[in-house]
Specification:
The protein is α/β, with parallel strands linked by helices. It contains seven helices and ten strands. The strands form three sheets. The chain has a six-stranded mixed sheet with strand order 7-6-5-8-9-10, sandwiched between helices. The longest helix is centred in the N-terminal third of the chain and has 19 residues, at about 45-65. About 35% of the residues are buried.
Length: about 220
């Protein structure tokens, strides 16, 4: 039986929720050039994959974070993902905006968190860790207790490991970069010769330039 992280990585690749384009790299919102891009909204159109992800993320929460009162998705990528995970656990749900609305109630958190409630954050992906840390601070400011976070995909960048350790924020992921590379090779999405080049990007994503992948 395949490892869970490898199986989910295969499903994400199959659904084009992870796209690999080393010859025509993407530009992330951070400004980084990248030979891959996560479009996890794609799984919403695939019921079997959506259900697998929902069940496994819920399982990770139950097994790692004990009693939980609220699930919190991080806008915008994890709003839907967080909602289906909260539904699977039959728990209240909120989501955390990137910034407070500039009109109406000017909410930063949509939904209600009561003081002292234990909250688990749901992220669609973990790259630098900044959005997860920012969401955790918003929850704490609202009186919640952050039990930890669960991500669908972890890029396993050293910068996120360092940042999360500093904040003492525990994050578990159901799949990751290492599993994705293995699944991509096995499924023929990339050639074995591409692995070293992709690793070059992974080792220094902030400074990598498209031409570097062919060096």
């Amino acid at each position: 039986m395949k490892q869970l992280d490898l199986l989910i990585a295969e499903k994400l690749l199959c659904a084009s929720a992870i796209k690999l384009q080393p010859d025509t790299p993407f530009v992330w919102g951070s400004g980084w050039n990248s030979p891959m891009y996560n479009d996890h909204q794609q799984i919403l159109s695939h019921p079997s994959i959506r259900n697998l992800v929902k069940v496994e993320m819920a399982r990770v929460i139950v097994e790692n974070f004990g009693n939980v009162d609220v699930i919190a998705g991080v806008a915008t990528g994890a709003i839907a993902l967080g909602a289906i995970v909260a539904d699977a656990l039959a728990l209240p749900y909120v989501y955390v905006r990137e910034k407070a609305k500039d009109h109406g109630l000017e909410n930063l958190i949509e939904g209600n968190i009561k003081a002292g409630q234990r909250v688990v954050i749901v992220e669609d992906l973990l790259s630098t860790g900044r959005s997860c840390i920012k969401a955790a601070q918003a929850i704490r400011d609202a009186g919640g207790v952050v039990a930890g976070a669960v991500a669908l995909f972890n890029y396993e960048f050293p910068v996120s490991v360092k940042a999360l350790k500093k904040e003492r924020l525990s994050v578990k992921a159901v799949t990751n970069y290492t599993a994705m590379i293995k699944a991509a090779v096995e499924s023929g999405k990339i050639k074995a010769d591409d692995v070293a080049s992709l690793q070059k990007w992974h080792d220094d994503p902030e400074n990598w330039m498209p031409g570097d992948i062919f060096d």
